[in-house]
Amino acid sequence: MTEASRPLDALNAARGKKVIVDLKNNKQFIGALKAFDIHINIVLDNTEEHVDGQVTRKLGTCFVRGDTIIMISPA
To answer: Which of 3, 14, 40, 57 could form a disulfide with 66 if both were Cys (CB 3.0 to 4.6 A apart)?
Structure first.
């Protein structure tokens, strides 16, 4: 992975790759990062919702509001 000098550079490097998104409601979304903006609103593709490590739903393409996100990590 290339070195990122700013947080948005790290997100840009993860574009098109699988990421794990931890949410404030104790759920995780795992999917390919398609797009994001300066508010860290993100669009994920092929998204799965995980609760307690188990897949609960397959969501496909979804929009996640940035203020609900705790962490974004490469899968």
So the answer is: 40
User: At the topology level of CATH, where does 7-74 sit?
Assistant: SH3 type barrels. (2.30.30)
**Along the 75 residues of the chain, how does pLDDT read in single tens digits?**
456 688 889 999 999 999 999 999 999 999 999 999 999 999 999 999 999 989 999 999 999 999 999 999 998
Handedness of CA 64, 14, 12, 70 (dihedral sign): positive
Residue spans of the domains in the chain: they are 7-74
Instruction: State the first-to-last Cα distance of the chain, in angstroms, to the nearest integer.
Output: 13
Give the count of beta carbons closer than 10 Å to the beta carbon of residue 36: 19
